[in-house]
Each structure stands twice: as C-alpha cells, then as structure tokens.
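Example 3.2
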Amino acid sequence: MFLLSWLARSGASAVATAVLLSGLAGGAQAKEARPTATPALAEISLSELPVQAQETHRLIHAGGPFPYDKDGVVFGNRERLLPIKARGFYREYTVKTPGARNRGARRLICGGTPPTAPEVCYYTGDHYASFKRIRD
C-alpha cells in the first residue's frame, strides 16, 4: 500500500505503475511455481550393480563391519534428488572403487529403520549427482 500511495504522489504514470506491479506479482508467482516433488528415479537390479556395490549391500544387511569410518553416517539429501524424508532416515555407505586412493565417488544410500533392514537403497556412481533405486 505504501508503494501505491508513493507512486500516486510522485506522479508516476499509470503504465509505469502497472509495469512495476506486474513485476512484483510475477515474482510472487515464480516462487509459488517451484517444484517440491523429487523426479522419478531410474531403477537398477542388485545383480546389475558393480560387485563392490553388491558386497556393500550385503554388509549393510549384516550390520558390518564396514571398511570406512564414515560408513553408516546420516546422509542429508541436500541435493534433494531422493524422496524427501525426515533427517536421519538415509544413511550412506562407501562402495569401494578399484584403484582409488580415497573413498571414491561410489555410494549406497539406504533409508529406513533398522539400518540392517532398509526400506529402500539407492546407488550413485558419481558422488550424489544422480541416483538409481535398487530393486532387490
């Protein structure tokens, strides 16, 4: 309201006022139009995964032991590529990469309780840039 009264007092033309107001309304509409749902993810069968990922999957169901200290830590899903769940739902596990000097880029992300019986697991071979849902 302040803006409208200022425009009227300043002698702004009706065209300028309309352009300004349409820009403000357009900005509000753009905010509301943001998608909140995650896109559908490709699927992959457990047998199609690299053998190292299959071994990590087996270790998850066995409760370990895991080769890396960070295995089993909470995965934050900051990229929002996985379905949105409460913090702590997802945990990440390293998939060994032959020849890598560090943990490499491959991970399994599993969600659900208990961690040894996850509801769902995802594979990423590119350090969270993309995911595939694992079909058992």
